[in-house]
Every structure is written in structure tokens, then in C-alpha cells.
Write a structure and sequence with these properties.
Elements (H helix, E strand, L loop, with lengths): L1 E6 L4 H12 L4 E8 L3 H11 L3 E4 L2 H11 L4 E4 H11 L4 E4 L7 H9 L3 E4 L3 H17 L2 E4 L2 H9 L8 E8 L17 H4 L9 H9 L1 H14 L6 E5 L5 E7 L4 E5 L5 H9 L13 H4 L13 H12 L3 H17 L8 H11 L8 H18 L5
Parallel strand pairs: 1-2, 1-5, 2-3, 3-4, 5-6, 6-7, 8-9
Antiparallel strand pairs: 8-10, 10-11
Helix pairs in contact: 4-5, 5-6, 6-10, 6-14, 10-13, 13-15, 14-15, 14-16
């Protein structure tokens, strides 16, 4: 029986993880759950899974929940509470599925405790990949990717030698604007951008998918997960989202991992690895699919993808700057302060204006993230 803590249990990854736990309740037990502010759903999850700890990032919502649960379990408020939970709860596996940079600190606490990290929070590696990898090596913790693309690569590399890898091929759906022109992107609405053709996700990751920044972040994540340079990480548009990613080897052969779009599959694999458990998820019916198609990504139209490659090439904390600027840019778009087409402008400006540090440690990582957010907020008079 493995004990599991879910950071972000009310988000799409968290909800899917709990479904996997339901399916395999004889193998897994929930010991801690966390949410940002959705205490109604969190309370229902508590009633079903009876965790020992819960954490709520929003202080006001945490106090509301405290009154409702009347001491049924230990409740930890705020970001401090989230880190305290990660450092103190009893668990074997941490599912790190918080949105954005907020996932870094508690994930580091799990690494220090030598736990398995089922990583769905790509920003952890985007903002602090070098430091995180050093910590993984120092403490001997495991990190198993949950993103469908990185899970696919992880599976394709089983039994293979790193020196025989020619390149990684990350697939991308292309999002809702695959067939839009650059001019049409000037006028897209929030509703347009949140209408993903294949996946049901939270607002932030859905906007990232529409701008293709999500794929840019995945390029950076793949670099740190699999220790390959950016020139060995390609992206191909695959609208059906059935091939989740591929690995090409030096003999020109290619391995691919395929399944219907369903996040429960990579979540289950991260929980059960190196084993595979039988499941009842939707099987892939190739005759019914008919055909699979592939296209080159347009890095002129989807500038965020190019910015991600550029930040990885620059090294240091350039990707940390990119990540923070993107998080605020998405927030500004969702508040209708900037256009969708303005997201890469915000990111490019921050990359130009904020100093890129090469002395990488927790202090410089968190300070760089703070400076970027302060700079972008001030530019748009939003206040931090």
C-alpha cells in the first residue's frame, strides 16, 4: 500500500489522480490533499478519502474550511502550510500538480525526503531544472513525468542507451488556433482560447496550449528530464493527440507511445512504475481512427515556441524569466488587459529587461521570479 499526497487535488490532474486511486484503492491510500481556493470540492474529496492533512493556499478560504471540518483532519493554511505539509506528511509518492511556479517549493521538500515525485508541474523544471536535478541526485529521489508527452518518452526509453538517441519528438495538438493566420490571432477571445479540441484542462495550461507556450515549456522540461540539448528535441504538430511523443534512434528507427487522449493513463503509470496495472480506460481502435496527420510547427505564428527554444539556448535563469513572464501574461489576457497576441510580447520584453543570472541556487531562482512578476505587474499597473 503506497501512501500518496496530491498537490493540487481540485485541478484536472488532481481529479484524474483521485479517479486512478479509486480504481486501485487496494494499492494506494491518500494521506494529504491540497487546493488553492476550491474548498467545496476539497471538502468532498476529504469526505471520500479521509486524508490526515489538507492545505489550502488561500488564507481566507482555509479559515472557512477550518470552521466547516471542525478538526476532522489537520488543516494547514497558505503557502507556508503547503510546504509544511510536503515536509511533514507521511507519504511515499507526491503527485506535484500545482499550477505554475507555486509548485516548486513543495516539490523540493518532497525531493529532500527522497520521495517519488510524479511530476505534472512542468514549471518546476522550467524555472529551476539544473537545481532540481542536482537535488534529485543529492537525495536519491525519483522523478517520474506525468505530462503525456514526457511519460511517452520515458516509456520509449525503457531499456535503451542514452548515447543511441538521435532525437526526441514531442507531439503537439496545435490547439484551437492551428489553422488561424497570424492576423486572426489578433482578435481571438478568451472563450476561443479556452476551447481546446482534445483535452479538458485548467485555464492556465489551456491558454498555454493555445499559444503553444505549453509545448515550449515541455521542450525545456524534456531537456532537464532526459539530459539532451535543445537541438535534439523536436516538435511536430499531431492534431489527433494519439501519438503522445516519439524517440528516434541513431539507426533511424523510431519508438512511439500511443493511446487515446486520457490523462489517467500517464498518471497511473507514474504511480505504478515500473509495473503496469490492468485498466478499463478507452482502448485505441485504429480502424475507427482512420488516419493520423503531422505538420511542422509555425514558429513565426506561434512565437512562444521560439522564445522557449531561445531561453533554453541562453541558459542560466533565462527559462525562469520566461516562465514567470508567461504566467503573468496569461493572467493579464484572462483579465482582458492584453490581447492573446500580446502574450509573447510580454515574455520577450521581460527576457530583454530582466538580468539573466548564472549563479543558480534557491535564492537567485526565487528572486528572479519575484523581479519578473514585479516588473510585468508594474508595467501594466496591476500591483503584485
Amino acid at each position: 500500500m503506497k501512501k500518496v499526497v496530491i498537490l493540487g487535488s481540485t485541478g484536472s490532474i488532481g481529479v484524474n489522480t483521485l479517479q486512478v486511486i479509486r480504481d486501485f484503492k487496494e494499492h494506494f491510500k491518500i494521506t494529504a490533499l491540497t487546493a488553492n481556493s476550491n474548498i467545496d470540492l476539497l471538502e468532498r474529496q476529504m469526505e471520500e478519502f479521509n486524508p490526515e492533512f489538507v492545505a489550502v493556499s488561500d488564507i481566507k478560504e482555509a479559515e472557512k474550511l477550518r470552521k466547516r471540518i471542525d478538526g476532522r483532519c489537520k488543516l494547514l493554511p497558505g503557502e507556508k502550510g503547503l510546504n509544511e505539509l510536503a515536509a511533514g506528511a507521511d507519504y511515499d509518492i507526491m503527485v506535484s500538480s500545482l499550477v505554475g511556479f507555486a509548485g516548486l517549493a513543495p516539490t523540493l521538500e518532497g525531493i529532500k525526503r527522497k520521495k517519488r515525485i510524479a511530476l505534472a508541474n512542468k514549471e518546476t523544471l522550467v524555472a529551476a531544472g539544473e537545481y532540481v536535478n542536482n537535488m534529485l541526485e543529492k537525495y536519491g529521489a525519483e522523478m517520474i513525468p506525468v505530462d503525456s508527452e514526457h511519460s511517452a518518452i520515458f516509456q520509449c526509453l525503457t531499456g535503451e542507451k542514452k548515447e543511441r538517441i538521435e532525437k526526441l519528438i514531442l507531439t503537439a495538438s496545435g490547439g484551437p488556433f492551428l489553422n488561424h493566420s497570424a492576423e486572426e490571432l489578433e482578435n481571438v477571445t478568451i472563450e476561443n482560447a479556452l476551447d481546446h479540441p482534445n483535452w479538458k484542462m485548467g485555464n492556465k495550461i489551456t491558454i498555454d496550449s493555445a499559444s503553444m507556450m505549453n509545448k515550449g515549456l515541455e521542450i525545456i522540461e524534456a531537456h532537464w528530464l532526459f539530459d539532451l540539448p535543445p537541438e535534439k528535441i523536436d516538435v511536430v504538430i499531431h492534431p489527433q493527440s494519439v501519438i503522445h511523443s516519439m524517440v528516434q534512434f541513431v539507426d533511424a528507427s523510431i519508438k512511439a507511445q500511443l493511446s487515446m487522449p486520457d490523462m489517467k493513463l500517464p498518471i497511473q503509470y507514474a504511480l505504478t512504475w515500473p509495473d503496469r496495472f490492468e485498466s478499463s480506460y478507452v482502448e485505441t481502435n485504429f480502424p475507427r481512427l482512420g488516419s493520423l496527420t503531422f505538420l511542422e510547427p509555425d514558429m513565426v505564428k506561434f512565437r512562444c515556441l521560439k522564445l522557449a527554444y531561445d531561453s533554453l539556448e541562453q541558459g542560466g535563469l533565462s527559462s525562469c524569466i520566461l516562465n514567470a513572464a508567461n504566467e503573468i501574461a496569461v493572467e493579464l489576457f484572462l483579465k482582458e488587459i492584453i490581447k492573446f497576441s500580446g502574450i509573447p510580447d510580454v515574455i520577450s520584453d521581460a527576457l530583454d529587461k530582466i538580468e539573466n543570472r548564472f549563479d543558480i541556487d534557491p535564492g537567485t531562482i526565487f528572486e528572479t521570479d519575484r523581479l519578473v512578476r514585479e516588473y510585468v505587474y508594474n508595467k501594466f499597473n496591476q500591483g503584485a
